[in-house]
Design goal:
The chain is an all-alpha fold and 381 residues long. Helices cover 61% and strands 1% of the residues. Keywords: TPR repeat.
Length: 381
């Protein structure tokens, strides 16, 4: 019997298959950063999806909960936002210690029907922020921007309390202690952050309610001078609601040129801002009335030109209000009232294709500065 030859083991190497790529899930910080960027871009639905992913992994993540509350607010889900912010405060077992002051600030704004509760939330936020500020002041290497933000938030909470005390729709307005309480709150705000624009504006509003217009003008001039020369993308620029509030005060004091300049800055940032168009139309309307009282002209513009500018602005406001489903019904009613008055005067909208508001150029000089003397100042008198 012959031997059977054994087969030699093959030494040929089997080609290796390419390595399968390993996909790692995004980290929580990466998801938070993405959600925040989407909120800035106003893509709230997509932001909510990222926030949901975070909370699935970390149900008690305070930063994600706060973002969720903001998103719900922006999407009009008021009760859901209220519930979300409440989970960040005791007695909720998952509430962080100390709770974020922002939760108190949001809930204060959501407590319009209960001024007592709103005041308590503002006070709670102030107490937490004050402790944080003292910690920053003791830490020599703490960033100055963080300290400035803490001071700004404390002032905002103090001003929020003043607004509640001054609101005529609440009984607090008629409390004998209201005037002194507002004075004390504003003194505390200006002690916390001297020269703060929001505090100065609130003080101007108080002075106007006290029929002290000259002091109110001084406060407004000081408030505006702190930021009027900043670029439109400067983070130190007050938020649009604060600037709109300043415009209203300017209009109450018949300070039309600075009112228009502030409005132009707002529209450079957001030309779809309904209230800005309304206030610009209202400003031109008041200027037209003043021109009629002064012989038919105001700063080389006829009352008819100013009235036409008002008509155009109000028409734009009405369109934006309708298209955006803006919730401010009284604003729209006032717009319609003003338009009816202009129609009765024979004022029609500018023809399509024509520069709607030629008169605006009158508030800029040849080198593009926002006033006539070249130093950035507008006469407040």
């Amino acid at each position: 019997m012959t031997r059977t030859k054994t087969k030699k083991k093959s030494t040929a190497r089997v080609p290796e298959s390419p390595a399968t790529p390993v996909h790692t899930a995004p980290s929580i910080p990466a998801l938070l950063e993405k959600a925040q960027s989407l909120i800035v871009q106003c893509d709230y639905e997509l932001a909510q999806r990222f926030i949901t992913r975070i909370l699935e992994q970390q149900p008690a993540n305070a930063e994600a909960k706060e973002m969720l509350g903001v998103v719900q607010l922006e999407m009009g889900e008021i009760e859901a936002a209220r519930a979300t912010f409440s989970t960040l405060l005791p007695p909720n077992p998952d509430a962080p210690n100390p709770p974020p002051p922002s939760a108190h600030l949001y809930l204060a704004q959501l407590s319009e029907d209960d001024p007592g509760l709103a005041l308590k939330h503002y006070q709670a936020a102030i107490e937490i922020l004050t402790v944080q500020l003292k910690g920053k002041e003791r830490a020599m290497d703490s960033p100055k921007d963080d300290e400035a933000e803490l001071k700004s938030n404390i002032v905002r909470a103090l001003v929020g309390q003043v607004e509640i005390w001054m609101d005529p729709s609440y009984d607090l307005c008629f409390d004998p202690a209201a005037p002194q309480t507002c004075e004390d709150l504003l003194a505390s705000a200006l002690q916390t952050d001297p020269g703060n624009a929001e505090a100065l504006q609130a003080l101007a509003s108080v002075r106007m309610s006290q029929e002290r217009p000259e002091e109110a003008k001084q406060c407004l001039e000081q408030a505006w001078s702190a930021w009027k020369d900043l670029d439109i993308d400067d983070p130190k620029l007050p938020p649009i609601p604060t600037r709109l509030a300043l415009v209203k005060l300017f209009l109450e004091l018949a300070l039309f040129p600075p009112a228009l300049l502030v409005l132009h800055g707002i529209m450079a940032s957001d030309d779809q801002e309904v209230e800005a168009w309304y206030l610009e139309g209202w400003c031109f309307f008041l200027m037209s009335e003043q021109a009629q009282e002064n012989g038919g002209k105001l700063d080389d513009l006829t009352w008819q030109e100013l009235a036409t500018d008002a008509r155009d602005c109000l028409a734009t406001c009405e369109v934006l209000h309708t298209n955006e489903g803006h919730p401010d019904t009284p604003l729209l009613e006032h717009v319609k009232e003003l338009v009816a008055k202009l129609d009765a005067l024979g004022i029609k909208p500018s023809p399509v294709g024509e520069d709607d508001r030629e008169g605006e150029g009158e508030w800029e000089d040849a080198d593009g500065s926002e006033d006539g003397d070249g130093d950035g100042d507008v006469e407040m008198a």
